[in-house]
Amino acid sequence: MSVRRVVPNVRSEAVPESREFYGLLGFEEVMNHGWIMTLASPSHPAAQVSFMTEDATAPVAPDMSVEVDDVDAAYAAMRESGAEIVHPLRDEEWGVRRFFVRDPNGQVVNVLGHR
């Protein structure tokens, strides 16, 4: 299994203002579902930050997202380790397969793969 990208998820009630602010640093909007917006660097597309008001299908908003090439293997590894699964593995309507797990620091990590 390999990591494709890591994205901090910032809880925000100022999403449009965040787009403007980070735009001054060169970020551009690459995704916006209304409840989550992702900005990326045009020159380094894996350099991203997301701003979210809530999570559309999960009970909590994650602190970061980690995209992996095999989300099922990641889920099996986390379950086998005894890590706390906060949101079970599921296919989302926007084209990702994901689960949430709590890290040793109490942070909620959204582990995902694109279908």
From TrEMBL:
It comes from the Bacteria. Gene3D superfamilies: 2,3-Dihydroxybiphenyl 1,2-Dioxygenase, domain 1. InterPro entries: Glyas_Bleomycin-R_OHBP_Dase (IPR029068), Glyas_Fos-R_dOase_dom (IPR004360), VOC_core (IPR037523). Coiled coil: none annotated. Residues 2-114 form the VOC domain. This is Putative glyoxalase superfamily protein PhnB.
